[in-house]
Amino acid sequence: xxxxxxxxxxxxxxxxxxxxxxxxxxxxxxxxxxxxxxxxxxxxxxxxxxxxxxxxxxxxxxxxxxxxxxxxxxxxxxxxxxxxxxxxxxxxxxxxxxxxxxxxxxxxxxxxxxxxxxxxxxxxxxxxxxxxxxxxxxxxxxxxxxxxxxxxxxxxxxxxxxxxxxxxxxxxxxxxxxxxxxxxxxxxxxxxxxxxxxxxxxxxxxxxxxxxxxxxxxxxxxxxxxxxxxxxxxxxxxxxxxxxxxxxxxxxxxxxxxxxxxxxxxxxxxxxxxxxxxxxxxxxxxxxxxxxxxxxxxxxxxxxxxxxxxxxxxxxxxxxxxxxxxxxxxxxxxxxxxxxxxxxxxxxxxxxxxxxxxxxxxxxxxxxxxxxxxxxxxxxxxxxxxxxxxxxxxxxxxxxxxxxxxxxxxxxxxxxxxxxxxxxxxxxxxxxxxxxxxxxxxxxxxxxxxxxxxxxxxxxxxxxxxxxxxxxxxxxxxxxxxxxxxxxxxxxxxxxxxxxxxxxxxxxxxxxxxxxx
Amino acid sequence: xxxxxxxxxxxxxxxxxxxxxxxxxxxxxxxxxxxxxxxxxxxxxxxxxxxxxxxxxxxxxxxxxxxxxxxxxxxxxxxxxxxxxxxxxxxxxxxxxxxxxxxxxxxxxxxxxxxxxxxxxxxxxxxxxxxxxxxxxxxxxxxxxxxxxxxxxxxxxxxxxxxxxxxxxxxxxxxxxxxxxxxxxxxxxxxxxxxxxxxxxxxxxxxxxxxxxxxxxxxxxxxxxxxxxxxxxxxxxxxxxxxxxxxxxxxxxxxxxxxxxxxxxxxxxxxxxxxxxxxxxxxxxxxxxxxxxx
Lengths: 517, 294
Known about the structure:
The complex is a heterodimer of chains A (517) and B (294).
Chain A: H1 6-24, E1 40-41, H2 43-46, E2 48-55, H3 58-78, E3 83-89, E4 92-97, H4 99-110, H5 120-123, E5 128-133, E6 136-141, H6 143-168, E7 174-178, E8 182-188, H7 194-200, E9 206-210, E10 221-226, E11 232-236, E12 241-242, E13 246-254, E14 259-266, H8 268-280, E15 286-290, E16 293-296, E17 308-315, H9 317-329, E18 336-344, H10 346-375, H11 377-399, E19 403-404, H12 406-436, H13 440-472, H14 475-509
Helix pairs in contact in A: 1-11, 10-11, 10-12, 11-12, 11-14, 12-13, 12-14, 13-14
Chain B: H1 8-29, E1 32-33, H2 35-38, E2 40-47, H3 54-62, E3 69-73, E4 79-84, H4 93-105, E5 109-117, H5 119-147, H6 150-174, E6 177-178, H7 180-210, H8 216-248, H9 254-281, H10 286-293
Helix pairs in contact in B: 1-6, 5-6, 5-7, 6-7, 6-9, 7-8, 7-9, 8-9
């Protein structure tokens, strides 16, 4: 029935006014603090950088296998089980064991509460899968063992990335996990991500080790290059202190040499070890190694017991600042690689907004002019509905603080074009019905009823496309799918509540008019 | 009443030819995939010096040893779009390009947009895009099958294939770039074309219930005519919106809006000349829909 209670009319009007208020709060600054939410602009509109980083977990896995090898060696010795050829090959641990001991080993590694091969109570699968190959036993990281390694290194990396980005001080960075080995960094307003990229590209693994001439160092030795890539020195593998022992690091001007250095403060354990090493090693060279390269290798002149020291190494003030920042924020568990980068400058973003607004205005005007000429008074009703629909759409995006992207604006404009469809379907149906039905009210009622299935089916198909796009799409395209989907709901609401009410009120006053539509 | 039936044969033939040409184009010429799907680097820059041309930029890029570099004008003013196909560029490749370019040409540039997609990400994006389009077609097929009968479902899906393949065929013919936003456009076309088909199908179903004595050949024609003014009006308003995106929405949305315009035109046409003839071919009758409802 085309009857609307006063209550309903007031309610619909109030809702519409509310959304007009919400939408305009994006553009107009109201004095009150009643509503402060705003649509977020995507990086493509406000400018900024999008970086997708992938964690290379291979070193972490190797490290894990090495640690486990040591644990197994000690464990088997304690249990008096003889073994040989314990080594790592092809990302798994291999060891040779006598046939008689194999059952025992199997039992140890597959026990529900195995200490050496955990995870069973949690995942119903062990950390390592065991397989027997002749007299050899192979231990391979299970699916869950790998997942555990990946997620924990992802957690650590996320924390370090966050610290580094925060130290640089960009506004409102967005740092998120993606899958189990990726990290997404969004940096609004940043138009040159070079510095952040170089900071995130470094693992920042710092160690202090002695330079040695002795090939038979009990910890082993390795040849390491200086950062210039030319000189190299033999360095012991024994680590005196590492980055974790650092409490603070700051760039500093050394007044005597007029050189920029990085001064650091060690924690208690670090200070103790450093003190001991410098007291026994006076006259020796101490290599400061960062990510496998020697930064500098000063000669120890005195015992340093205070836990304070300086790293020198041809720094500019900028590079000293960056090194200090890296040391303060700590080392990444594994190297990161930038696998996707998208940067939009702020002026292109503004140009896109301007173009989007112009296209929206012109598209809207064209559609309402066309509708008015086609349907006159009903065109006016459809146009009012369309305008309110736009307020609903933008208002809901504001309520959820959704992110508006350039394709998202395209989605809004497209919604303008497609939203009138429901009204057109209804109007055309009413036209048909009134050919056989003199009573305008009945014609209108049937028009609404009979067009319903077509409208619903037609909108659900678009909704299906939008939902699939939402789940499969990324970044800006996701923004498009959101506006498209929200647009469908606001369209249906405005057509069935606002347009229906307006047409109803008009028809009630013109019950007898012939050729009403 | 317009007798659409008179042109069935002609238009079906035209559609068939267009689809075959499109498939041949897709197979032999292929699509021009952008960096989203092929990997590489894209730079949009604005030169402050008005004398900078595509040729002078191309010359300076030749010396940088970056492999295949594609340079073209982009929109108005002194904007250029540079595509570098070299894969797996090092982390600071972009910084080096920026430096070299300023050194060689001397004029300062405004780097408006820089995108770098690694080979792993691009192949993932391609895969997920293909899945998305396939999934949306399957979802539509399924939805229509539930709401109507399988005959309708088949007709609608063939109309969809027709629209998507011809749109992609045009992209191949004109060598327009396929990027993520084109995939979004294709999915929206799927939604729109379906929308249009469903409205006519809804009327066919209604008329099937009403008239038991009218042949489906006649009935589809009646239904198309009854819904014709709606079909036209909605296409017009949608096209008005799309043309205003195409003309005023900026360079970045050009490809997207072009694909959508093609899709809307073919979607509207296919609802009439593909989706309905299939119902005729499949000999849909009142029995087809009553069987289900009883």
